[in-house]
Amino acid sequence: MKFALFSLMMNLPNAITGESLTTQQKFHNILEQAKLAERLGFDAYGIGERHGAPFLSSSPPVVLTAVAAATSRIRLLTTVTVLSILDPVRVAEDYATLDQLSGGRLEMIIGKGNDPRHYPLFGISEEEQWDSLGERYELLKRLWTEENVTWQGTYRPPLQEVTTQPRPLQQSIPIWHGSASSTRSTELAAKYGEPIFSSNSFHPQAKYKALIDHYRERLDYYGHDANRAVVGSGAGSLYLANTREEAIRRYTPYYEAFHATAAAQHNQSPFKDLEDNIAHGPVLIGSPEQVIEKILNYHAAYGHQVLSISVDGLSHTEQLEQVERFAQDVAPVLRREIPSFIWNEPPLLNQSLPFSSSTSHSSDSWPPAISPIFQV
């Protein structure tokens, strides 16, 4: 199994001490978290996209460019890019720039987002979200793979002989499809033969398993090999302690603070409290042994090769402690237990990166192109 650490850059007053961070302090902490993830051997670091409090993650390509400058190896994920509201031309330009500056470390997860506040900001209705996502994605694919694109659609002005600049560094930027609530996303992923990333954040396992099963069924329908399907999964929140009781005691204030926000209430979690979520939902709260057992249970249902975790909402010190403990006590067991055929080659690195913080790598040890994560 491979591992990603991600953040939505939630900036709430600390649920225990009441301490508030400035926006600048939160950005600094995100960079520290990403650097630690790389040092600990995480495979990827992700920034989500939100457009309202308590989140500061309205500009993932900008934040990930700063992360790229502070790191040298770790893959950079968008968790997720809310493509349903964005101009594909701007997306193509911004993320190709990030791909160039990062040395080809970008992997994009697209979706329609789960916070309805962004629709009026960007001029579409919630009812249009799926049609908008499909149209914008088709155009983005063309802009990254074709030159002199001529196009006409519903959600932006027509294009005539357009070639976006810069071009991506990677021959093909890997794209995942975020999956949370509808078969529209799994259908789109299956049509293109591309991987999915289940949010697995707010509901029981059965809901997300049904979407993953639909994805595999539709891969076969479109002529792709479902046995080569690539699935990633989120995991709710993480809090490790020596015992389940200690983890519950220490994490409960954070859980209650987040679930009091409007963003959390929109998702209408069916769990009555934290203990119910631990028993029947995706949160990873307990001893390392209990968390490993739960992840293995979810893997048996989903067959995912990548797991993303988040420590948003904790104090900065606890965030770093939890990430380090996961890397030491949980990840090694899962790497041994769950095989993964993706991300087995290092990312393409541009040896001329002006801000590279690592020793340069020879062309013999770093291949000239990234292997596709999903070959069909």
From TrEMBL:
Entry keywords, A to Z: Monooxygenase, Oxidoreductase
InterPro entries assigned: Bact_Lucif_Oxidored, Luciferase-like_dom, Luciferase-like_sf
Question: Which Gene Ontology MF annotations are present?
Answer: monooxygenase activity; oxidoreductase activity, acting on paired donors, with incorporation or reduction of molecular oxygen
Q: Is the keyword Oxidoreductase assigned to this protein?
A: yes
Q: Domain of life here?
A: Bacteria
Gene3D superfamilies linked: Luciferase-like domain
Residue ranges of every copy of the Luciferase-like domain listed in the record = 10-304
> What GO cellular component term, any one, is given?
cytosol
Supply the Pfam families for this chain. Answer: Bac_luciferase
Its name, as the record gives it, is Luciferase
